């Protein structure tokens, strides 16, 4: 065991040391391959998402300018009433 394998962490109790983990070249290569694989998977997911979004955008364009097909007017909520009254007061001033 080498004394250089240990380091004192700032803010820790005096005399407390932690052994540094040294990664071997093999572990680093495995990690690199794993990250490359994850990166490729994420790129595929991104391309699929972009394709789906483009398709939905085209469908919206084809359906015309009106998106909402139904809706009913109901009683105004208290917050909506207060906002409309405030707007009216501001317009009068």
TrEMBL record:
Residues 53-76 are annotated as: Disordered. It comes from Todus mexicanus. Residues 53-62 have a biased composition (Basic and acidic residues). The lineage of its organism: Eukaryota, Metazoa, Chordata, Craniata, Vertebrata. This is ZBBX protein. InterPro entries: ZBBX (IPR037688).
């Amino acid at each position: 065991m080498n004394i250089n394998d240990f380091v004192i962490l700032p803010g820790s109790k005096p005399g407390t040391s932690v052994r540094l983990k040294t990664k071997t070249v093999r572990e680093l290569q495995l990690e690199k391959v794993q990250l490359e694989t994850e990166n490729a998977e994420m790129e595929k997911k991104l391309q699929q998402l972009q394709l789906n979004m483009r398709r939905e955008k085209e469908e919206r364009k084809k359906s015309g300018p009106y998106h909402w097909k139904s809706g009913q007017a109901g009683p105004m909520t208290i917050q909506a009433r207060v906002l409309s009254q405030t707007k009216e007061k501001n317009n009068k001033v």
